[in-house]
Specification:
- It is built from 18 helices and two strands.
- It is mostly helical.
- The chain has a two-stranded antiparallel sheet with strand order 1-2.
- Helix 5 packs across helix 7, helix 7 runs antiparallel to helix 8 and helix 11 runs parallel beside helix 13.
- The longest helix is centred in the last third of the chain and has 42 residues.
- It is elongated and about 90 Å long.
Length: 358
């Protein structure tokens, strides 16, 4: 059942919220600019009457209407005047995640949402948004912790489960996360699913070597978009580019032996040459045990160094792959969600614009 929102008191403020709600209800590949502009103007009237919440609402409505830079600047100014108010930080973080290039402003977005969490701890929506921002910034361990914190606060949070699964798969190498990602788009939710969530299912299918199903999931993610339509072409290209990268790197699990030469740079790579030298040393030690003992070299010593080299290289490749695939997922997924799905009730509540009635 969808949560209902209750506007707070104040006539211009209520009119602004009504226009914003109408724009969200009529969201179709973006919000109606006229309604969003009306909401922004009414928020401005409420701000002129002294409503402390209205400046955040006005800047947020302008950002949704497309005037992102101006909206973010207004929020920065509001934060400078009201540094103890979490709403401005939340709005700045949300708009940062809803920009065409979320990776470019990931640092500011992360800062804003960390500040919001510090000022308003225990809010599942803020923890989830922070997990997404940290993923876009490449801070994966902290992102996974924030996703888990969001799930601890609300275990029905589909978005937190999606990002937790992507991070577990590509950063943690946990192939069991693939099953959850595959099933996630089909689960019932309190609001309609954005088709972009099928990108997560594509990752899950590919990790399980279900290549046909992965391609089908990718097609379902971009199904609402018109192929060849210029404004939507960057969204389609980003999703396809990310999928090609996922196919090139393979599943989010430790690399199999037959992929080593390709993944670490070929037979002339530092890893392969060092590994070959250690293998030759190990054979020499086994052939002449007495000389090796005199030189203070034991077979177990060589095996230990070899194991450490392999473990360090595997970890480095996984971290490189995580950076490529998780940040690439954010780059493809977030603009697609922004285009297809309005901000949620929980986001408005986190900005103190509405109350949520359970």
């Amino acid at each position: 059942m969808r949560q209902s929102i209750t506007p707070m008191l104040g006539r211009p403020f209520e009119s602004a919220l009504a226009a914003l709600e109408e724009a969200r209800a009529g969201w179709n590949k973006g919000g109606p600019p006229g309604l969003l502009s009306r909401a922004a103007k009414n928020f401005d009237l409420a701000a002129a009457e002294g409503d402390a919440r209205a400046p955040v609402g006005g800047a947020f409505a302008r950002g949704l209407a497309g005037d992102l830079e101006s909206a973010k600047q207004k929020l920065r100014e509001h934060i400078a005047r009201n540094p103890e108010n979490a709403a401005g930080y939340v709005a700045l973080g949300i708009l940062g995640l809803r920009t065409p290039d979320p990776l470019a402003c990931a640092e500011e977005t992360t800062y804003a949402l960390i500040a919001a969490r510090d000022l308003a701890p225990g809010v599942a929506c803020i923890e989830r948004l922070l997990a997404i921002a940290l993923s876009a910034a490449g801070v994966f361990m902290s992102a996974l912790q924030s996703a888990r914190a969001a799930l601890a606060l609300d275990d029905t949070d589909i978005e937190a489960r999606l990002w937790s699964g992507v991070l577990r798969l590509y950063f943690g190498g946990d192939v069991t996360a693939a099953a959850m990602l595959v099933e996630l788009p089909n689960e019932a939710d309190v609001r309609p699913h954005c088709p972009a969530r099928w990108l997560g299912a594509a990752a899950g299918h590919y990790a399980r070597s279900e290549f046909h199903d992965a391609r089908v999931a990718l097609r379902r993610a971009i199904a609402p978009l018109k192929i060849g339509y210029s404004p939507e072409a960057p969204l389609v290209d980003a999703a396809r580019r990310w999928f090609r990268e996922a196919r090139g790197f393979g599943a989010g699990v430790p690399m199999s032996s037959d992929r080593w030469l390709r993944d670490v740079g070929g037979p002339q790579s530092d890893y392969v040459r060092t590994r070959s030298a250690l293998a030759a040393l190990r054979e020499a030690v086994a052939r002449d045990v007495e000389r090796a003992a005199a030189d203070g070299v034991a077979p177990l010593d060589v095996d230990s160094v070899t194991a450490a080299l392999e473990a360090r290289t595997r970890r480095g490749m996984l971290e490189w792959g995580a950076r490529l695939l998780v940040r690439g997922f954010a780059e493809a997924y977030l603009p697609l969600v922004t285009y297809l799905e309005p901000p949620s009730d929980e986001m408005l509540a986190a900005m103190d614009l509405v109350f949520l009635d359970d």
